[in-house]
Amino acid sequence: MAQHPSSIGQKLQVLITADTELRSVRIIVHGRMTSVNLHGLDLVVRRAGALAPGSDVVLDLSGAQAWESIRDDVSTTAFVVRLATTMGACAPLNLRVVPPHYLQP
């Protein structure tokens, strides 16, 4: 299967950890974030929130790089707004985003 040209070299490495009581979930991301692979992070955050409703979810992007042009898309508010429509009647998502390193175009 052929890869989309914009995805070559743009894979993210994701590690998800949780405490034993599922009170907190940490999603650690490495790699280069783009508008193409950002949707994949939405899915990971949504699943983590659904796995442990009401838990604190930390999306740690400090090990990732992102273009300055998507700065607004990787804020806590942007994630919460995008996920609000897909989380339905689940408990509110207690999300905190640790920002990535930004690259200049």
Task: Describe the 3D structure.
With 105 residues, this protein is α/β, with parallel strands linked by helices. The chain contains two helices and five strands. Strands 1, 2, 3, 4 and 5 form a five-stranded mixed beta sheet that branches. Helix 1 crosses helix 2. The radius of gyration is 14 Å and the shape is globular. The chain starts with 11 loop residues before the first strand and ends with a strand.
Write the layout of secondary structure elements.
Blueprint: E1 12-18, E2 24-33, H1 38-51, E3 56-67, H2 76-87, E4 94-98, E5 101-103
Parallel strand pairs: 2-3, 3-4, 3-5
Antiparallel strand pairs: 1-2
Helix pairs in contact: 1-2
Give short descriptive properties of this protein:
alpha/beta, five-stranded mixed β-sheet, globular, 105 residues, 2 helices
Structure in a nutshell:
The chain has two helices and five strands.
Structural class of the secondary elements?
A: alpha/beta
What is the tally of beta strands?
Answer: 5
N-to-C CA distance: 30 Å
- Tally of separate helices: 2
Strand-residue proportion: 35-45%
Residue windows where pLDDT falls under 50 for at least 5 positions: none
Provide the residue-averaged pLDDT: 86
Largest sheet: 5 strands, mixed
